[in-house]
Design a protein that fits this description.
The strands form two sheets. Strands 3-4-5-6 form a four-stranded antiparallel β-sheet. It has a two-stranded parallel ribbon with strand order 1-2. Helix 2 packs parallel to helix 3 and helix 7 crosses helix 8. Strand 4 and strand 5 form a beta hairpin. With 191 residues, the protein is α+β, with helices and mostly antiparallel strands. It is 40% helix and 18% strand. It contains eight helices and six strands; from the N terminus they run H-H-E-H-E-H-H-E-H-E-E-E-H-H.
Length: 191
């Protein structure tokens, strides 16, 4: 047998049935190493999600072989932008920052791989948190590029164990006004 009781098994089956019947819920596909733009297009057409996140583009495959990795990334970002426009589905491409970002954080100049990821994107975000900021449970969201609006940096309250973020000043002020266990109180505000 197995360690679950019958009522626990029934609950899991009911939850699985509920999830399977939800349209456009979160779909995670983690077997996509070597995934092509054509496969992305096919899956988007099949599932019709509201948004797609690719973590990360450099792991994808291109139809052609390229001598330089930047050429492949340029092809992929341009093709993914066309897919996004054709299907009217936003695509978030996750990229790493190179080593120079360790101290200063992300910038348009230190996104690893290829400048085409920056050039083809409508929005470019970066997250930064140094040791002092981590102690304060603070992260900085940097909006580096916004084709249709302003750019700037924004402080967020960060709950690292669940990767939840919230407005820093509101949560920090609330935390400071409460009891000794400030971190726990702020974390409870997320719920």
């Amino acid at each position: 047998g197995h360690p679950l009781r019958e009522e626990e098994i029934a609950k899991w089956k009911e939850k699985a049935r509920e999830v399977s019947e939800r349209p456009n819920d979160i779909i995670v596909m983690d077997d996509v190493r070597g995934c092509t733009v054509d496969r992305v297009y096919a899956e988007l057409t099949r599932w019709q999600p509201d948004i797609l996140c690719i973590d990360y583009i450099t792991l994808m495959s291109a139809r052609n072989s390229y001598k330089q990795s930047w050429e492949k990334i340029m092809y992929l970002t341009q093709e993914l932008k066309q897919v996004s426009r054709t299907l009217n589905i936003p695509i978030i491409g996750v990229a790493q920052a190179n080593r120079s970002s360790f101290r200063e954080g992300t910038s348009l100049d230190n996104i690893a791989g290829s400048i085409s990821a920056v050039q083809d994107a409508d929005l470019v975000f970066g997250l930064h948190s140094d040791e002092e900021m981590k102690n304060e449970r603070r992260a900085e969201l940097r909006l580096h590029k916004n084709r249709d609006g302003i750019v700037g940096n924004f402080n967020l309250y960060w709950k690292p164990d669940t990767m939840e973020f919230g407005p820093y000043e509101i949560l920090r002020t609330w935390v400071d006004s409460k009891t000794e266990n400030k971190t726990e109180n702020a974390d409870n505000r997320f719920n």
